[in-house]
Design goal:
By secondary structure, this protein is of the alpha+beta class. It has a single domain (5-363, 377-440), classed as Cytochrome P450 (Cytochrome p450, Orthogonal Bundle), CATH 1.10.630.10. It is built from 15 helices and 14 strands. The strands form five sheets. Strands 2-3-9-6-4 form a five-stranded mixed β-sheet, with helices on both faces. It has a three-stranded mixed β-sheet with strand order 1-8-7. 45% of the residues are buried.
Length: 442
Amino acid sequence: MAETLAVQASPMDWTWPVVGRLFEARRDLLNTLQTLERRYGPVFQTRVPGVRVVAALSPDANALVLRNKGDVVSSRQGWSQFIDHVFPGAIMTADGDDHRRQRRIMQAAFRTDALRDYVARLTPIITARIATWADRDLLAYDALKRLTLEVATDVFVRPARSRNVGGRLNRAFIDAVEASISLVRINLWPLPFAKGRRGAATLRRHFRRMLPDKRRHPGDDLFSQLALARTDDGEAFTDTEVIQHLAFLMMAAHDTSTSTLTSLIYLLGKHPDQQRRLRAAALQVDVDEPLRFDTLDGMTALEHTIQEALRLYPPLPVMPRVAIKPFDLHGYRFTPGTLLGVSPLFTHYDPRLWTQPLRFDPDRFAPERAEHLGHRYQWVPFGGGPHLCIGRRFAMLEIKATLHELLRRYRWTLPGDYTMPYQLIPIAKPRDGLPIRFCSLE
């Protein structure tokens, strides 16, 4: 039997004190991870500001950590330091029985009949907003961020329109999201961290005032669904849990959809042949009929393209956890208290798992090839196991609806020598906002 070493004996990446690999990782996270994995193997120690972290880079590591059989790692201890100050009580920061209870209740808000209602609400918003983008020079990321926030506010909350309540909610929400990714965490106004904490408090107060009415007169929005959600045994969320889950789900849906849609616009602008193929399918859909759940759900070619964009540009390139029970991985024993990180980004580009991983190739997800099924945990943009993203079906429907509308209205291209300058930490987005012009088909 191979000798098992304590994780403290794993290779140590001796680099800059305090800051560690932060600046290299911000510049090119994928190359940094690939270089270190070639040098040290799939398990090694490195530094991020203020802490030492053990990297575990393989699909087997993804499987062990994300499946979390026996509750050996804590998602709460991994994530809470990053988001608790603005999004306390988020489902991704719950562990064990508490997490299982909350997820059982929340499933009701994402059942198929609820998703049908959400699609009916989001498609008119998307159509109206995208119609204003014709033949204008835009920053794709900023335009999409405004769109996805408008969708999240309306479909999730459905705020009153008087006195610009929706606008105030949007501003508070934007500030809260910025604080969740802020590297400078000083609670001093008007720094982004302090503005975000104030914005998050504004959201919670507003949602708490709305909650009694949502319980008495529920609608087809997510807020109402969370307020009414029950398990078969009658379990429900407390008022505080409803408010906390709503705020976090708005952030998660808006942020990841913006990131993925921006990547799709870039990839299809660089590959006009793929764009033409998808547009031909989009133009076959009857424009006189409302875009329905079943129509979106059946757009398989579009889904494969989205899956490939999520492979190349996963919104969460690294997922942190803390060991709370001892376990073995790749010949090392991880002991309680160890901060570790698995990386979807690394496995999404591993040439041992994918054919030409640098190539944009949506057909790799088609049934006849199904490269993503070589190892169940090699493609994990939505996480996996108990913490598999509960809103992934909603996100896929929103992204499909937006991309479908863009394809049937516009064409767009990017200069052959343009490469999107992309940052992956603290949040996945283009550094230049991705300048784009959507040209009308007529």
